Amino acid sequence: MCRGLFSILLIFLLMTVTSADSPAAELDMSGTWETHFFLAKAVVFVKQDGDSLSGVVYVIQKLTGSCDTYHFTGSIRQGVVEAAHHEGHSVCGRLVDSNQCTGLLTTQSKVQLKITALRCPNPAPARNTESTNVPF
Predict the structure, then answer these.
(1) What is the per-residue pLDDT across 120-136, written as a single tens digit (0 to 9) for each?
(2) CA end-to-end distance (rounded Å), the chain
(3) In 3-state terms, what secondary structure has residue 131?
(4) pLDDT per position as a tens digit, 15-63
(5) C-alpha 121, offset from chain centre
(6) N or C: which end of the chain has fewer CB within 10 A?
């Protein structure tokens, strides 16, 4: 009896470990994400293709309303997210769940900020991520 239960438990654990490491089990980051830091709000449009990420970040200054645009590329592997802008800004973090990502933003000047990005429940309509126009 114990041997049979042990075998079933072992098979279940092997299936869980195997499926957790498979690319199909990876969470899809595609969509709209938002975070806040200092006096700014960042809206991030992410496209995921396999383990590759790309997209655009709009950083809106709350006091002036000005908007800076950053296109990025990156990857996601086993819940670890890495992305960078060609001028040197980068993010390294981890998906907490399908709606939250925490990590460290490193600016071009090496300033580091802890950030938490949340998936937007009602994302803005899809935007042309090639455009540098303000999306709002």
Answers:
(1) 987 555 554 444 444 44
(2) 64
(3) coil
(4) 323 334 444 446 789 999 999 988 999 999 999 999 999 999 999 999 9
(5) 15
(6) N
